[in-house]
User: Fold this.
Amino acid sequence: FEKAIDLLQQVAECIRSVPDRVLTIEGHCDPRGTEEYHLALGDRRAQSVKSYLVRLGIAGLGEQQQRMAED
Assistant:
């Protein structure tokens, strides 16, 4: 968990250093379970990262799009 926090803090610093940035946050899952489960899990993971980045002061994280990656 602490590694993820450290990594997200580094990502936030990188984002701050590039004013005109485009950022895509995706939540990934393994292939077990239903498509509905994966979409919900991926969305929760992406929202969690987004919320943390917003708490770190990264603004402008708006639109979201759900899609299933084809493996």
In short: The chain is about 50% helix and 0% strand. The two ends are 27 Å apart (CA to CA). The CA atoms of residues 35 and 69 lie 10 Å apart.
